[in-house]
Amino acid sequence: MTTGPRHVVGPTPMGGAGATCCSRRPVRRRWLGGKMAAVSLRLGDLVWGKLGRYPPWPGKIVNPPKDLKKPRGKKCFFVKFFGTEDHAWIKVEQLKPYHAHKEEMIKINKGKRFQQAVDAVEEFLRRAKGKDQDLTIPESSTVKGMMAGPMAAFKWQPTATEPVKDADPHFHHFLLSQTEKPAVCYQAITKKLKICEEETGSTSIQAADSTAVNGSITPTDKKIGFLGLGLMGSGIVSNLLKMGHTVTVWNRTAEKEGARLGRTPAEVVSTCDITFACVSDPKAAKDLVLGPSGVLQGIRPGKCYVDMSTVDADTVTELAQVIVSRGGRFLEAPVSGNQQLSNDGMLVILAAGDRGLYEDCSSCFQAMGKTSFFLGEVGNAAKMMLIVNMVQGSFMATIAEGLTLAQVTGQSQQTLLDILNQGQLASIFLDQKCQNILQGNFKPDFYLKYIQKDLRLAIALGDAVNHPTPMAAAANEVYKRAKALDQSDNDMSAVYRAYIH
To answer: Which pLDDT belongs to residue 182?
Structure first.
């Protein structure tokens, strides 16, 4: 189960509290093996809601906001889903009573967020048990909240008999199915996003499959721009949207983005208050700013630019200087993580530069990451990010080396992984990368070519201060070998193939 905008009427089932649809009278329908069966549903009932291709998700029938109209021609209820921030109108035939179908749904649905949503329902029921007052669904259930303690992050709303207030100033921005002027949608850039150009000519994104887990965030009222929709950027933008931000996007590859020709970085920067960028390497970062119709041409006094690319300190310092020379404000904010963490809104953000801009980006950083660090002057974040990725890349090369040595000496690779997972090296990273190797699945979560680039830049950083980096240098040679074997566009775990060829 994945999530979309903070309040959604349309393509993504998520979680939250709302209210019934057209009538408070019970409706006698549900889906069951393609057949209709009699069942009574009322305001306040716990249900399983099914929407589109998404799996059934636990929710509660609630009252919609007063100014939210029911979709025409649909017999439905307004459902707030547990474990997320989302609401949706659900057709009555796509609803099942929670208790009667709990065991069935748990068998067919898996995943951490699904289990957290079910746990949230059970906690809700435990709290409601023995009380006359009808408690409503928690505002959110987050990974952070779960770690801090049961229900630590939950916020309880008024009783279900009271209509839900619309506290989100961007609420109507996302009610695309309710707007009088329909948007014209072009090809999806990924399964995560759908680029839409409305009649006004502005570019907006409807989040189609976001999984941010940071709970309630009050979005900034500033207009946000985002340049670069690769493995990391797509997930980041989805989560910005889910948390209520208004986002304008641009991507270098028009075919991938689905955007029309003519949109440029300069146009995005000129129309937005804060523009983020996340591209592949120093050359791409410079081209984005200094190239034709680049960022620099859209910079005016007060415009803000945040570079989230992993580059070297010299590059980011040069970019900062040219942005500031035009009266702009600059922040570097590279991110530690991979595609999955980007999708989940669980990146670690390393920032440096304009401290005031760092504060202005607070709601954006909360949407895209689990934590952020401010490291002082420009260049510090770039250096720290390269060191972090140097450690990660060297560790990955060592994992691959160990697995191949096990194989050639007649030892079980799976047993090696089992042993490592029971020891001090146990980690999600270790397990995921070993599973990639054991299954021969190198679908990119962090491109091999990018970790090799980061190793190269980290070695250069060491050279600049006359500090030895022999482990990184050795790992770098293995990645270079993997690149020569056409593994550049595979996951970093494909470095394994450098050892077996």
So the answer is: 26
